[in-house]
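Subject: Protein record for review, amino acid sequence with backbone structure tokens
Concerning: The relation between a protein's sequence and the shape of its backbone.
How to read it: Take the token row as a discrete description of the fold.
Enclosed: The protein record, placed directly beneath this head.
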Amino acid sequence: MREIVKAPPRALVPVPATADEARAQLNRARERVMKNLEVVQRTLRPVTHWAEIVKRHPVATIGGAFLIGYALSRLFSRK
């Protein structure tokens, strides 16, 4: 006897009947993943490049560098 598995509609994917259908389905999935990866890379690219951050927020960058330098100087001072 077969059991009925309850799953969300998006999770139900037709089982390919042939190897060619399976390859086509895998290629479509691979293309979707690659497109999503490209979107993520484009979105994160400015964050990962420090020069871009300095160009976008010069005052905040200089202020942050000053605060870090001040904190480090207080931490390692010999008083």
